Amino acid sequence: MGVQMSWLEAVVLAVVQGLTEFLPVSSSAHLRIVSAVFWDNDAGASFTAVTQLGTETAVLVYFAKDIFRIIASWFKGLVNPAERNLDYRIGWSVIIATIPIGVLGLLLSDVIESTFRNLWITGTTLIVFALVIALAEKVATQARPIEQFTMRDGIFMGLAQCLALIPGVSRSGATSSAGLFIGLTRETAVRFSFLLAIPAVTASGLYELMKVLKSDGELVGKSGQVLASASHAQLAVATLIAFFLGYAVIAWLLKFVIDHSLNWFVGYRIALGLGVYGLLAAGVVQAA
Question: What's the whole-model pTM score?
Fold first, then answer.
């Protein structure tokens, strides 16, 4: 039986999830670090995946009109080639680009819940991918708006999304940087990044939610060991908090990236990664 999660821990982790899920700073890394520093444990990938249902619901609500339009265009395009417009291409791009992370997520599930959550890896990926983001901004031409989006763009960003299986990388950071590397405008890259995350994150969250409900709130890691236990009420409140904060962050970020680069987050990522190294070296937290 794992340590029972307190209400304070559940609320704090939910706030962290809501504030960091859509920023290129890695929400999974922040949840891992905060758990280790303040509660000397790891709430696990299960808690992250379940609360991500809240932030992904925020995406569904915020982009509801776009999503319905894309779905409608996709179905129309299936039966009528004349209807195969930009939304049709985006619909197929989201579907096909989701396949790689779906396959790897299933094949590497044990590694994701164990090895990848090592804080030495988290600190390293925070720093390394800060440099990737900086490089993407440096070489970005931003010459191609959403109207020029292609299936190849979607697949490339889908492959980049696979890197987000490692805490510290950041799903939005990886996919948005990939978009910048291939010449998309920053706003286009970020908007597609949000849409691309919907199938994978929702599927992962529902899968973990079913496991948590069946185990009566136990957050289970590799080999079935229980990392912590959370009540259904705690999970529900945490998911709700993540939804409201996530919605606010989406609205802010889409306005922010119009006139600001992702370099604003690079220094923070490097400082956080070095901070993790320092905490590990001082013995304040344990890597595993």
Answer: 0.88
